[in-house]
Each structure stands twice: as C-alpha cells, then as structure tokens.
Design brief:
Strand order of the largest sheet: 3-4-8-7-6-5
Distance between the termini: 26 Å
Mean pLDDT: 93
Cofactor: Zn(2+)
Largest sheet: 6 strands, antiparallel
Structural class: alpha+beta
Active site: 120
CATH class: Mainly Beta
EC number: 1.8.4.12
CATH architecture: Beta Complex
CATH superfamily: Peptide methionine sulfoxide reductase
CATH topology: Metal Binding Protein, Guanine Nucleotide Exchange Factor, Chain A
Order of helices and strands: HHEEEEEEEEE
Organism: Halomonas cibimaris
Domain MsrB: 8-131
Shape: globular
Strand content: 25-35%
Number of helices: 2
Radius of gyration: 14 Å
Low-confidence stretches: none
Number of strands: 9
C-alpha cells in the first residue's frame, strides 16, 4: 500500500483539533469519551485521516479501559506496530499503515479465547461505517 503523505497544514484543514492532536501528534483522547461502544452489528472502522479500513466491529470487545478495544486489526496490512518508550513506559504503538496516523497501542491482555491481544484504539481516530 502506497503511503499517503500530507503537510501538517493539509492535515489541520481536514481534521478537527482533537483528531489532529491524537492522530498526528500521538495524543490520547480522554477515556470513556468515544461513541464506539454504541455501534453494534456488522461494520468497519476506517482511519479518520485517510479512510483506510482498519478494524471490524465483530472483533470489538469491552475491556473496561475507556477506549475502544479490538482483538485484531482487519488485516496485518492495515496497521503497523512500533516500539514506544514515551511517557516512561514500554508499549507497542499502533499506526495506520497507509498514513501513519497514531491510533493507539496494543497490549497482550486481550481475550484469551481469541488472539489474547487488546488493540486499545482512540475512537477519535476512527470513522465507523455499518454494513449495508
């Protein structure tokens, strides 16, 4: 997949201030502020920056952490993972494979009956579309 690149000014023009802060500046939305828990049924979550499909609603679960959680991305080509030592922690950052938007982090404390992973994703980085 070819990388989509834009200038900071172009991203600011396209995104809200909160979307820009989270996706382009590696921010984090406040917990329990996303409306992703309201989505039910079949559907896809797309990157708010470049529209790439990232996660399926059927792989979302309630981790109780305050952020949308998924046990896997749509495909390994959908996201990239990078080692992150910011804030004095050792974590794995998750970014959109197409535009490098910061999405959140992945942790090894997800449902053991599936992948065992918890993709803890900022809802403001996602655009949900139900299947038709």
């Amino acid at each position: 997949m070819a990388k989509l690149e834009k200038t900071p000014a172009q991203w600011r023009e396209q995104l809200t201030a909160e979307q820009y802060r989270v996706t382009r500046e590696k921010g984090t939305e406040r917990p329990f502020t996303s409306d992703c828990d309201a989505h039910s049924g079949q559907g896809l979550y797309h990157c708010v920056c470049c529209d790439a499909p990232l996660f399926e609603n059927e792989h979302k679960f309630n981790a109780g952490c305050g952020w949308p959680s998924f046990d896997r991305p749509l495909g390994r080509q959908s996201v990239e993972e990078h080692f992150d030592t910011s804030h004095g922690m050792r974590r794995t950052e998750v970014v959109c494979a197409r535009c490098d938007a910061h999405l959140g982090h992945v942790f090894p404390d997800g449902p053991p009956d599936t992948t065992g992973l918890r993709y803890c994703i900022n809802g403001v980085a996602l655009d949900y579309r139900p299947d038709e």
